[in-house]
Amino acid sequence: MDVPEKIIKNASIRFETDDLEKTFSQIQNAIKENKSIVLNDSEGKDDHSLYRNITVRVPSENFDQFVNSISKGVSFFERKEISATNVTDQYIDINSRLKTKKKLEERYLEILKKANKVSEILEIEKQISVIREEIEAKESELKYLESRVSLSTVTIEFYKTIAQKEGVKISYGSKLWNAVKSGFFSLSDFLISLISVWPFVILFVVFAYFIRRRLKRRKKE
Q1: Phi/psi zone of residue 43: left (φ > 0), alpha (ψ -120 to 50 degrees), beta?
Q2: pTM for this structure?
Q3: Using CA atoms, how far apart are residues 184 and 63, in angstroms rounded to an integer?
Q4: Over the stretch 21-48, which tens digit does the pLDDT of each residue have?
Q5: Residue 58 CB partners (closer than 8 Å, separation 6+)
Q6: What is the 3-state secondary structure (H, E, C) of 41-108?
Q7: Alpha-carbon span 80 to 78, nearest angstrom
């Protein structure tokens, strides 16, 4: 069976950019020019960066051109993985099994035409139903395989690092404010502690005063 090669192409790309909007605009243009479909588009922010993740389905014949378009201006890729999987044998095998099932269905249909007994008819129809389910399953496998071959999946992750200087200023300011709050609470705790022991301090002073007077009287005697 002479079948053109069936190749599934995929790519996963990650890189840093100085301008998120400019990079996104470049990717959008590449999507339009190569008649691609956006499956997923998400963006967010973490402690160190602003980021955007896009998943695109690209017609296989435009795969190389699309990857080259979105790669323009990128000086360094943290990740650039491109894979090509040959599924020709798998495709031929599924197609062959599908043809065999269809021929088997035709035979059962011919037998069904000649059947006279109700029990035979019911049994043949049962077998035909099972075969048709298998045919549908094989057809679904072929469609899925053809879809992955005709449309490549490209995952693009790009981000912009948040300036470290801003982080240092914020961090320093936070530390300064925390130190002020900590000092205030420490002073408050100290004052509360003094208030709580104040009666004992008075008793101690009075007791010390009387002891001292008594000792003076003994010395005079």
Answers
A1: beta
A2: 0.65
A3: 64
A4: 999 999 999 999 999 999 999 999 988 8
A5: 34, 36, 66, 151, 152, 153, 154
A6: EEEEECCCEEEEEEEEEEEHHHHHHHHHHHHCCCCCEEEEEEEEEECHHHHHHHHHHHHHHHHHHHHH
A7: 7
